[in-house]
Amino acid sequence: MLNPKNSYKAYSKTDVNTSDQLTLIIMLYDGLLRFLKKAMVKIEENDVEAAHNYFVRSKDIVNELLSTLHAEKGGDIGNNLRELYLYMFRRIVEANLKKDIEIKVKEHILTIEGNREKRREADAYVHKGISARKFAKSFRLSEYTEVTGADLTDGILTVKLEVVLPKEKQPRTINIQ
Question: Is 153 exposed, middle or buried (0-12, 13-18, 19+ CB in 10 A)?
Answer without folding.
Answer: exposed
